[in-house]
Write a structure and sequence with these properties.
The chain is mainly alpha-helical. It has helices at 2-6, 10-56, 65-89, 94-101, 103-111, 116-132, 142-168, 171-192, 201-226, 231-237, 241-253, 259-286. The chain has one domain (2-115, 137-231). The relative contact order is 0.21.
Length: 289
């Protein structure tokens, strides 16, 4: 499994990570009523840490001071991002939560851009995100909105830190070590909230599937991609998340798309493809590949 994940090219790696995360979201939704958001996040992060540590076996004694300075905040931002996002979707629709969360990656894309065409792709992706958001719902929980925005800020930190740590540490080892610190931060919330007290063998097996689909596989793929793609390109590619969420909702939950949502899907797909194509041409023209 490890070698197959490592050999996937960066752009397909991001796409597979998106599909994996959204498939895992369907499992998480089923766990919420039983063990809550904190319990679900703890189960996901805790099992992910065990799986990744078993697969990559990072030698913690050989990690340098410079690596620790990046991998610890990387792991903490990763764990906090997941917990806060689950707290958000407990209170507001998942479509709105994903949309608001995308403010973080979009800011990374804007701040990392130097060409006018890149601003066009960001604007197009942002337009799609606005279209997919249910802004007409006046009963939105403000705390849920704040949680989603905070998750976006943590996502931006995860992208930036992931890009830096991938340059000085092997991807699998970085993700495994980071997930260890994510678990140290998040698992106590599940224990204190008594969410993990309701675990049964069936729920634990669902937790393993959730950990694989939502954390272990996608974070490993994303770390590989972050080591080979600019943070700006990675951020815009990740704007496919609302589209993937809509498709998975249709497949698993029979939730159909409205006209605006279909239009939003088209916008983010075009923005992602355009960003990838123009970045590729820029690499060719500058001789960086």
């Amino acid at each position: 499994m490890k070698n197959k994940l490592i050999n996937i090219p960066p752009i397909p790696a991001v796409l597979f990570a998106i599909i994996s995360v959204q498939s895992g979201a369907a499992i998480a939704k089923g766990l919420f009523p039983v063990i809550g958001a904190a319990g679900t996040a703890s189960l996901r992060i805790g099992i992910s840490a065990l799986l990744l540590l078993a697969v990559y076996r990072p030698n913690l004694k050989k990690i340098t001071t410079n690596q620790w300075k990046l991998v610890i905040p990387y792991g903490l931002s990763l764990g906090a991002m997941n917990l806060v996002f689950y707290l958000a979707i407990e209170r507001i629709p998942i479509g709105l939560a994903v949309t608001l969360e995308f403010i973080g990656p979009l800011l990374v894309a804007v701040l990392g851009s130097k060409r006018m065409i890149d601003f066009f792709w960001v604007l197009l992706a942002a337009t799609g995100i606005v279209l997919i958001a249910p802004w007409s719902n006046n009963g939105i929980d403000l705390l849920g909105v704040l949680f989603a925005l905070l998750a976006g800020a943590l996502w931006a930190a995860y992208i930036v830190l992931g890009g830096k740590i991938s340059k000085i540490m092997k991807g699998g080892e970085a993700v495994a070590t980071g997930m260890l610190f994510a678990a140290i931060l998040i698992v106590p919330f599940g224990i204190l909230g008594n969410g993990l007290n309701s675990l049964t063998p069936k729920l634990f097996s669902l937790g393993i599937a959730l950990a694989l689909l939502s954390s272990a596989i996608p974070f490993t793929l994303e770390m590989k991609a972050l080591g080979q793609l600019p943070a700006r390109t990675f951020s815009i590619l990740m704007s496919l998340e609302p589209a993937a969420a809509s498709i998975c909702a249709l497949i698993f939950l029979q939730e159909y798309l409205t006209f605006n949502e279909v239009l939003a899907v088209l916008f983010v797909v075009i923005a992602s493809a355009g960003s990838t194509i123009t970045s590729r041409r820029q690499e060719i023209n500058t001789g960086s590949i």
